[in-house]
Design goal:
This is Carbon monoxide dehydrogenase subunit G. The protein has about 130 residues and is of the alpha+beta class. The chain has three helices and eight strands, in the order ββααββββββα.
Length: about 130
Amino acid sequence: MFIESPKKTINKSPEVIYTFLKDVNNYKQLMPDSISKFEILSEKRFLFALKGMPDIVLELKNSVPYNKVVLGAASEKLPFTLTANIKQLTSDSSEAHFEFEGEFNAMMSMMIKAPITKFIQTLSENLQNI
């Protein structure tokens, strides 16, 4: 399953956005209002839960300076990645969007597609306010 958020213009340089997204402490600012739990587990790992959903642990998997930050599920039960893509527009503005990619059975895909789509759209919208 592949889901992509809308691209958003952010009045920050790619370096500022990249630095923000590499710090797992900052993801609390991007979370939707429906968050019921957020905990930092290490400098590369955090746990969060949305109301009515199980806890999800994400960890920093990979990054490409000023272009991409890749988070992945810490559990192998539901393997997926959440990638933030950053593109410079001008010296002080960028375009950014999130991509969710995971392999799920058809039933699981049907159940999680709408909440995940809304979740990454919210991350993208909230990234504009950093």
